[in-house]
Amino acid sequence: MKRREWMLLLAVIGLLIFVGRYGIHPRQSSIEWREEVKLHDGRSVLVQVRRNYERRGGGYEKYSANSRLRSMTISFNMDSSKVFEHEFVGGTLQFLDEKDGKWYLGYNSDSSHPSVKIGNTALYPHVAVLHADGSLSKPGSWDDVPVEIKNSNILPATPNPAVISRFHQTTVGHEEKMLHWSQHPTGAGWGVIHRVTPR
Predict the structure, then answer these.
(1) CA-CA distance, 16 to 155, in Å (whole number)?
(2) Residues 129, 72: Cα–Cα separation, whole Å
């Protein structure tokens, strides 16, 4: 084998090792869609969802099944003139509902950094209340959260990022969401929120 052929062979081997270790797509990626979210009283709201991932290992696929969730950003229209947006760092929104002009956001985690406008609360799932003027408050107990709000209604990344990537840049209606969720159930599932106040 000639020197040039050896060099070409080594280059190909090196490229294969690199792709196997780091992949051919960027290490960080996002999957986003518009999701129809049913509220407790039957109304619907469209929520813009973006899940931000970090790839673990290499491979040829753009969305790896074992990618790590970095954050989840959501935005929705509170009314005809106000839009709320927030990035949950290291966590995801589990439910979103509204009663008497207040929006209730239930989530599993958020950054504890002082600059974060929501952060974690004394409840689990954590709950923040978004008021009509755009201000936020944190309920002291589950007694401050209307009993009518009891269902998880935001699609989880089930079973993994590679599968939910089919929703990327689409609008996911309620029926389509519930069908997908029933085919890929999670422990959180569609059902009663487990209202826990950690000691």
Answers:
(1) 36
(2) 18
Looking up tokens 């081997």 gives: 13
CA 132 to CA 163: how far, in whole Å? 36
Angle at 163 between CA 160 and CA 169, to 5 degrees: 115
Q: Provide, rounded to the nearest whole percent, the portion of the chain with pLDDT above 90.
A: 41
Cα angle 46, 127, 160; round to 5:
60
pLDDT score of 22 more than 60: no
Sort strands 136-137 and 171-172 into parallel, antiparallel or unpaired. unpaired
For residue 187, the 8-state DSSP code is S
Q: In this predicted model, what pLDDT tens digit does every residue of 140-152 receive, in sequence order?
A: 889 999 999 988 8
**Which residue's entry shows tokens 């923040």?**
128
- Write the pLDDT tens digit of every residue in 60-78: 667 777 788 889 999 999 9
For the record, the structure tokens of 35 come out as 């999701």
- Contact, 168 vs 177, CB < 8 A? no
Tokens of residue 160, six digits: 């993994």
pTM of the model: 0.81
SS (H, E, C) 44-103: EEEEEEEEEEECCCCCCCCCCCCCEEEEEEEEEECCCCCEEEEEEECCCEEEEEEECCEE
Q: Is 153 helix (H, G, I), strand (E, B) or coil?
A: coil
